[in-house]
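pinging the channel bc i need a second pair of eyes. not urgent but kinda urgent?? the chain im working w is below, pasted from the shared doc
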Amino acid sequence: MSYAFLHTSDLHLGRAFGTFPEGIRGRLREARHGVIARLAQAARGAGLGDVVVAGDTFDAETPAPETLRHALRAMEAEGDLRWFLLPGNHDSLAATELWRRIGAEGPGNLVVLDSPAPHTPAPGVWFLPAPCTQRRPGRDLTEAMSAATPDGAIRIGIGHGAVTDFSEDGSGTGIVPPDRAQLSGLDYLALGDWHGRRRIGPATWYSGTPEADGFKHDDAPGALVVRIDAPGAPVQVTVTETGQFRWQRLSLPLLPGEDAPARLAALLPPAAGRRDTLLRVEADGRLHLAGRAALEAALAAHAPDFGWFEADLARLRVEVETGDLDLIDRGGALRQAADSLLAEAADDTLGPDARAVAEMALARLYAFVLEVQA
């Protein structure tokens, strides 16, 4: 007896990405819809027939009608595969109308795991689901995974939530025991909720979202190919990448005298993939005014190459050399403003945030004057 399937979660179809400009926002929404086809391709590539979505197929309990319809039709189009959907915290069982519509309009190759009762997807194989009853159930729903199944069965738990001391916001409020697989005699525990891929134990994994949606996780988004050769046998888990977009944080430490634009260019990802990259550059250290001005110009030049680009220079300090302020002006209002900003940046009676703002304003003034003089 053996069984294999694709483990994924947290598709969050219909997510709005409202803090981003409209151009990239539309592309991000479309990429989330397109992940259904990419998951299907990954399953076929691994010789699998079943895709298990461990919660949060949808971003909200009331997705737009077109979001729901397009998702159901996309799964129907992959008719050689079966899709098993578990209600998560974003699309919990409290969304009765959502799951009623899925039951009424869903294709024949879609199975909703809306009950904690054991479900058999194949002879000798049992799913033990723990669907989320509401956004914050407040109790360990995975206790249901201890339900009895026939002797010699392969037992697969499917849940959604934070493992104890491992919650997405770092608060340590998770209620799923990390040893649930052992407690309930599971051959594998497929979890959703954490958007990064993570192995909790030999038979317990978070698949992570198949299409990245933030800068928090460094691994390329993907899904897990899970193979169980026999009840009690070690599970085999391999990663298959499924994401279109890459969200990347780039750390840029700098020292006075360095060629900041050259350092930046050396760290940027290859040109071929930049359109599908959301990049956040996080600079720190110190630069002279001229170096900072050159860095800001380089950042502005590279930004249009990327799907989305942001530079955080809040931790980059400024060093002022003799004669720097003379380049702004030797007298008059501009020089007075520069002298005032320099004094604020060096004033220990001000808080660090206020001094940083003064440094940034001085750097912007210096860069502006250079642009005008060019």
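so The radius of gyration is 26 Å. and The first strand starts at residue 3 and ends at 8. — does that match what u expected or am i reading it wrong
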